[in-house]
Amino acid sequence: MSESKTQTDTLSGESRNGSKKPQTSHHPKTDGMRDDKGYYGIPPIKASHWAWQIYLYFWVGGIGVGAHLASVMGQLFGWKDLAFFRVCRYTTVVAMVISPIMLIWDLGRPERFLNMLRIVKLRSPMSTGSWALSAFGSLAGAVATKQAADDGLIRLLPGGEPLTKLAKLIPERLISVAALPIGLYVGAYTGILLIATSVPLWARNWLLMGPLFLSSAVSTGLSWVSFVLHLGNWGETRTLHALRKAERVVLVIEAVLLAASLIRTGRWARPLFSRRLGPLFVGGTIVGGIILPFLLLFGKETRNKGLLSGGLVLVGGYILRYVMVRGGRDSANDPDEYFSFTKKDRTEVREAEKIEGEEL
Length: 360
Known about the structure:
Shape: globular
Number of strands: 0
Distance between the termini: 52 Å
Largest sheet: none
Strand content: under 5%
Mean pLDDT: 88
Order of helices and strands: HHHHHHHHHHHHH
Radius of gyration: 26 Å
Helix content: over 70%
């Protein structure tokens, strides 16, 4: 209807359906002139503003978690490969230094991060994640300090000799094991943070998003350790062989979780396959970040294959986080996606209530 016609109807007091009642509602069920069934084409939820700092935060934090897990497993299996432990522990502490910086950069002001540490809210992923990040970073720092003392780095500092003796008192093995569950939560928390929203792409996959991000964190962490060891020609042959086996297993787990996530998300996974994100997701994550490195991890072990497979997993892990966050933004900006998602949720709730009523 043209604007002049609308004004005429309003002035004459006649509604569009012919009644004398003035037309004041533009609800999609009562306004016959509207073709859409949404909220005037306006997204009912606000999309995230997250930029590259968050993608980097998710990615680097995951690498740190995977490196720490590798270190603890090597410790439990009784490995004596000093280069392996050195790479794992320094990687973890550097990742735990970079991650809060990226998070605070995104938040805009440091006090916003500090405010989240004032109290513990167990039902808030942001609160528990901030505490876990701080605790894991502190424990990783203690372990890395002991490693630096063993490597003679602290002795180079002013007053280094007494500091070295003090640092060598740190029980790094006990702290490493104690930090493991906190680290695993840090790896999963980034996915949990996403599902605590109403964004269809994220919220629909509430069951598997955390495990998916954790598996990707472990795979990127293992690949980073393997990549650095190959790059520096460090590490024992037995260590590199064990890392290859572990990488294969974790990539399979990640592939299964990713496939299950896509099945569970269903039609709301469409942003991942859009013209803009689809080539990155399929080519960068599925093919380049999982399938190709998995195939490279079979056959004769060579330095070049180790470098290539590790590099592919690292790039694929970053792309996974990028497309998940950007796809979530596209999902939030599409009103039809949101309304269809909430409608399905309401239907599921009604069906659950009906079943519960029948059982009673």
